[in-house]
Fold this protein.
Amino acid sequence: MIEILKAMAARIDKEKDFLTELDNEIADGDHGINMAKGFNAVVPKIEAMAGKDIGSLLKTTGMTLVSTVGGSAGPLYGTAFMKAGAALKDKMEIDANDLIAAVDAAIGGIQMRGKAVEGEKTMLDAICPAHKAFKAAIEAGEDVKAALGKAVEAAQAGVEYTKTIKATKGRASYIGDRSIGHQDPGATSATYMYEEFLANI
Amino acid sequence: MVGIVIVSHSQRLAEGVVELAKMMASDAHIVAAGGLEDGTPGTSFEKISNAVEEVYSEDGVGVLMDMGSAVMTTEMVIEAMEDKKIVMLDGPVVEGGIVAALEASMGTPLDELQSKVDEARETKKLDL
């Protein structure tokens, strides 16, 4: 799990200029820089936690994001990781059902914190379809890796979908219809996390 | 006296609201929690926590926020300080901040501040 989180951090750092550019087009242009700052602060914290349970790792990740990101992604991703961590408390390894429970908790956390639902041009438009695809694949008997592959495809399709809708949540909602045509930065960063999860499992 | 915290993405905006409020209520316990630690725009969990601690008393603290992460981060600070009496106030940051500081300095209790801030929101500046 430490390696997966580090891979997510490296990807966010690599894409920070692109994420900031996306955010600049429709909102306040801080997503990439903020996320990179947050995840780069996560890396040394989790590296020092070798041997600790997955729940604690995710909780530390979430708390670090809350205190370092500085934009909406901080409380949103922070709450998501903290809720996922609580769902995986004391687990040293996880199976498909644990992962489903963790992401259920994470989505619940994002919805509670952001008071958002799908279709408002947010990170939920990548995470929710990805999670549905993952659950459906597991129920159909596929293994975790294959199911994560389906999740990544659904998240990527979710990002494309955000180009077609207008933002009704967050700073981008201030520009209304002019947000149509632009992909959502939060959905994009969430998709990177799914991609890195798949690539490093 | 109820303490007041002004949370904004901008450090200068939060400090400016405190400056204006102190013109009306120089003895108010009002502090700014604007921007990130280095002064760049954003909202800081630590700055908000420290600001709440700074003006906290048993009378509690009212917090006024601008938008987005200012609201969400304040929520998380309050959850982390669950044993403390802290209330988020919904309203215009400038006018609401002035009214909240003034009322707090006159001894208005925390549970009555929201209705005072509502009055600030409803007060028309122009006859339109």
User: Anything to note?
Assistant: The mean pLDDT of chain B is 96. The interface with chain A takes residues 9, 36, 40-46, 67-69, 72-73, 75-76 of chain B (CB under 8 Å). The first strand of chain B starts at residue 3 and ends at 8. Chain B has one domain: 3-122.
